[in-house]
Amino acid sequence: MMLKRRNFIKSFSAAAISPHFINYFEFIDSKKSLKASLSPGAIGIRCTAKELLDYAIKFKFSAISPPLRELIQFKESDKMAYLEKMKENEIVFDSGGLPIEFRTTESKFKEGYDFLVENINSIVSLNVSSLVTWIMPTHKTLTYVRNFEQHRTRLNKVATVLEDSGLKLGLEYVGPKTLMARDKYPFLHSINGLKELIKSIEKNNVGYLLDSYHTYCAEDKNEDLDFLKAEDIISVQLNDGVLGRTIATQMDLERELPGDTGIIDLENFLNIIRNKGYNGAVSVEPFNKELNKMEVKAKLKRVRASLSKFGI
Questions:
Q1: Roughly how many angstroms between the first and final C-alpha of the chain, as a whole number?
Q2: Is residue 6 part of a domain?
Q3: Number of structural domains the chain divides into
């Protein structure tokens, strides 16, 4: 039985493997360059907010994914000290995860929506500028049209709350074709499909979380991304494909770190992003069992090196 998407990051082994290092310290960042972002859950690391910031400083990341539920519980003095430490080390927040389950029941959606409304001021006070989430490409009971309408109405409500507080919402489509057999009804799974949904939401603060893996699996071409402007891109994830698989047989929860296999033309993907003028955060989300087995420091070195290969 397939693990629920994203739940994979909650289970990982404690065994260790030998990492392959490159000199990731040869890395130059500036206000105009892409920012290497550390998202601990995506690489099988469980840590506190304070540990996360210390890891980012030690391993030269320029952005971190905010653990919102922990940070909003900080005392004012602790929060200010945390933000000051980020500023001193030239680290910014990547997008936070949208704390709402909008894909299932109305009661679940309302629970998350109420949480967002209740805590939006605290989120804003952290200097978090955007929240992101993914669009599941199938549904057990809703046809495409009904699912589209549910997404449109619910995400419009979410975007309105964020817009009123000066935040953006980033949406990610999920491209692997193997995932399409999961449920009875298919849903959008390409950038053009997501573009239609975003247009229907009718909010100027809604944009895209772009992942090289999904772009590849959806067979999106350069021309499919031509419409994007820098302000449309909320955040970026860089991942590679698995050897021995075609575009049609890649699995959603099995990926490689950037450049490990060379299956995906990541230079081309990054050139598109850079040419649009995007200079925000870039993280990895490999859902990789072997990476998850590594000792924390070796893992962080390995992840940082994978981004450094591409000048990030």
A1: 37
A2: no
A3: 1
155's enclosing H/E stretch is: helix 144-164
Classify residue 190: in a domain, yes or no.
yes
Tell me how many degrees the CA angle 134-309-135 measures, rounded to the nearest 5: 5
Would you place residue 26 in the very low, low, confident or very high pLDDT band (cuts 50, 70, 90)? very low
Q: What is the pLDDT of residues 219-263, one digit of tens each?
A: 999 999 999 999 999 999 999 999 999 999 999 999 999 999 999
| DSSP bridge pairs for 36 | 282
**What is the span of the domain harbouring residue 205?**
29-308
* pLDDT above 90: residue 31: no
Residue 133, helix vs strand vs coil: strand
**CA–centroid distance for 309 within its chain:** 20
In a domain, 10, yes or no: no
Does any domain span residue 114? yes
pLDDT at residue number 283: 98
What count of residues does the chain have? 312
For residues 55 and 144, what is the distance between their CA atoms, to the nearest angstrom? 42
Q: What is the mean pLDDT of the chain?
A: 92
